[in-house]
Predict the 3D structure of the following.
Amino acid sequence: MEEAGDTPRSPALKKMRRLEGEQPVFDHMSEAEESKEPTGVAISGSIPAPEWAPVIDRVKSAIVAIRVTGVRPFEDSPAGVWQGTGFVVCLADPEHALILTNRHIISTGPIRAFATFDEHEELPIFPVYRDPIHDFGLFQFDSTKLRFTPSRQIALVPENLRVGTEVLVIGNDNAEKIQILPATIARVDRNAPTYCDSNYQDENTFYAGAGSNTSGGSSGSPVIDRSGSCIAVNAGGATEAASAYYLPLDRVVYVLGWLQANPDKAPTPPRGTLLTKFLFQPFDMLLKLGFTQEQERELLASSVHDGSVKAKPGLAPRGRPKGLLVVHSFLPGTEAEQKLRPGDVLLRINGKGCLTFASLEDRLDSFVGKEVTLSLSRAGTEMEVVMTVTDLYPLISHDIAECAGGVFTQVSYHTCKRYHLSTLDRGIFVVESGFGFGLELPYSAIVTGVQGQKVASLQAFQQALSSVPDGGAFEVAWFNPMTNERRTKRSSVRMERSLWPICTWRFAAERPNSWVREAAPAALSNDSSKIVKDGNVVPGEAVNASRDQLPEHVPSESAESSNGSDKNAAADEDADMDSHASGSKDTHRFPTTRDATVTRVQPMLCTVTTRVAHEFATDFIMSEDELSTTIVRRFGVGVVVDAVRGLVITDRYVVPQPLAQVELTFAQIVTTDALVLFVHPQHNVVVLKYDVNAVQPLPVQSLDVGLTSDGQGSSYEEPESGEVLHYVALHPDHRLSAKQTTVGSIYLKAWAFVEPSYRERNMEICNLNDSLQGLGGLLVEPGANGRTRAWFAQFPCGKKHYLAGIPIQVLVGLLHPIGLFGGASLPVPLHLAKVAALDCEFEELALAKARRYHGMTMEQAPGCCESRRQVLMLSRVTTGGTFDGKLAEGDVLLKVASKGVTRPQEVEQLMNEHSPNGEPVWWKVLRSREEKDFQVSASVRPSDGTARILVFLGIVMRPTPRAVSERGGPVRPHAQPGQGLYFWHIFDGSPADTFGLRPPGWLVQVDDQPTDSIDTLLEIIHSGKLKGRSWLRCCTTDAEGRETVRALQPDPDFWPTVELCRCFDDDGPKPRWARSEHPDPL
């Protein structure tokens, strides 16, 4: 039922909270305004009359600009920073003074907040009361700490709210400055507006309306009359009109009076509800609902006043009612559903007239937990019903559970209202699904069960999750209230508790409000010898080391060098693997096909699925689509290169970094985890390791590369332009496809340098004349005995990626130095292998151009006339690399180690032979038409990718990635590869986010202490040099070298210093990520 003359659910309504980072209405701003920092009261705008000046002088010291940080996402607000307005309403206890603002500013979740006063003084403020229904809340602060701003409060006079009253709305309008907006009260009997941007909706109160044209940031502004009193609080407005909506102060005065009268009690003044929403309707609408004219006359006669009663919302100037309260809706499964009907007209409560919202709430708040008698008119028939008044506070959620990167809370009363849900067995609301739940549960889903256990509270939810080991799969029952289909769905979710510990934040209704963290009970991991405790895996409760979200079944390093069989692997712990291991061998085969080519190729291929958390996406650039998803998920193709040792290669697009959850799927029937063993530091190749026991008895086969007799390369010919071959590809659904295709060309591709992230260089690729489908695959000769000619993989390039082929000869040359494809056994495990990389980039130069413009002679280019008539020219030299200062852009390469070279793989092969440990090698180049000789060394590099991360004040940092220094230009010491503290992500709601730190950049100094590495910063923290400091001066610099300094306030409760480190066990290459929390630096 809608209110006559109103549109309660209009999409044009908004709350006047200003999110940090939103663009202001105006295009041009001064430098001070661009900072977006609350700057105190700056009087501006049009003043209606000179007599307002003394009023403004009286109240401006009591009005504050508020900056709030939601340290965790919650049901009614995201994590992040927003701004609003408040004003001092009580100075009775100066050390515990009170500021009034809106509920959607103070929110119901954990926050940190600051108030900026008239004289630009900033003080911390603390939430002390959040009304469960109406849009107001109270902050507490210590007014004795004000040095320049006079301590003043604004009186609350709700009875002065009348139509025609001239007012000023003074607030943090548009989040620029405290501004003054004049208005005239046009209406005082509007039903509560319905907003479209959150679950929270006000109800059972009048709102006043005026054309003050307030905007974001003005929420919580006082509505001041000529006496200097506050008669309402600004709360919301229309986006496409000047209309603004003000909350009356009846319940504010009640709550404030109760808090002052009960200073030693918890700040929970009695607040009751019938779990029913009422609307005010005029008599004309009541008649349409069956209310009779006789009842109207009786009501008007009984409510005649002598004129001494002041007018109130819902009453005419002399107290005559203009309408009554009507039942609009109620929640299912409640007493109201049994006894009330929409359209019932409320007449009396306990025999006393109840004509307005103020009188309704007076009655309900006085009888919390008790029965009241409601006199109603239903279609003209009067009746009485007895109902119990429900306490509102237990219906409002404040506690938070965190699991696998997700945030959960119990479904609150307001969510129940929005989606018409029962308040009984409310279930768990998914505030943020995070890494573990992100692929299965959407935002706003409601969890009703975990592992077959019903969960109706956070305690039951945590208990059900606590028994799930890290890496274990468990079933979640849920439904999505945002869809019309409310059917229960069941999803399988994988537990991730080593990097994201399970914990609960318990709310304490104290003065001020607080949250206390409770860690989940310890649970066994999939390795029964280890126990997961508060996010750390501790073998025998002794070693503080965590499990990576990587495989449980991993052969030892000795198995890698022998037959690859790990008899001690607990393969039967994985339900999927167990089902396959116990099945018959007849079912463990690849899909049958009449295509001999596919039959030969498919045992070499597997599908690779990777999942990466947004906050830990350290080594790559996410696409626009990935930025809008909960987690990053990528699909690609893996090629088995050693079936005995369980080794697979894939590309750096699908596995962009070591900190990733990787799964391999074989034959569409077996899925197993994989470890990232080696990420090639220069080329698009990643070596993965899987448990061979997990895929047995599938006939998995290694890639046939046709090694030469000396094991130094492939005997297969390079694909030639125009050659007809077969392309066998894999798709995300694990299906194979095959097609006949024609080779286009083999060439050295120059990949665009888009952003500082990995990109391929110095590699010849193969393209086809046909369009390519699938995730990649193998280019092969047809038939059962055909040879493999190229591997097609996905190449990352900034936010995009491309499919291209790597000729088998090139691939063998890349993997040979690390002991694969005939390479000699390495003295170190594969994950510790190193390769000789080139600190330069080549481009192909046509021989004709080299002769004409660079002075090259035919004698200087041996071998060019035999095949492709091209030479190599240096297009980029890495700043600070081993070639810097010797070779230069534009040099034409003639010889390496006295051998003529025309292809990049030839250069890399010679450097691996002559400079495996960085020994100098002679290069002959053509520079300015003259031959020059230089001794240069290869850059010997280990496996690429982030191996260590530090989260400090919400700043996610790692040593500088090599791609940043390769962008060109001067490289400062802190920006050298592997040096400094490079940050690319700021957690929403963290101290860094609160005070406007923006990525990317480097943290170069904390207070007076340089921070040139993770170890240096941790040493500073542990040394106690920051002890006693409530603020830390953090100096950062960007890629151009601009330095900025920001003062950040640590928040060790919600944002401790956390270190993630990739570790390897001593008994084998089983990488895992260890998570540790460091002590509070203060």
DSSP finds 22 helices and 64 strands in the chain. The CA atoms of residues 82 and 921 lie 59 Å apart. The longest helix spans residues 250-261. The radius of gyration is 35 Å.
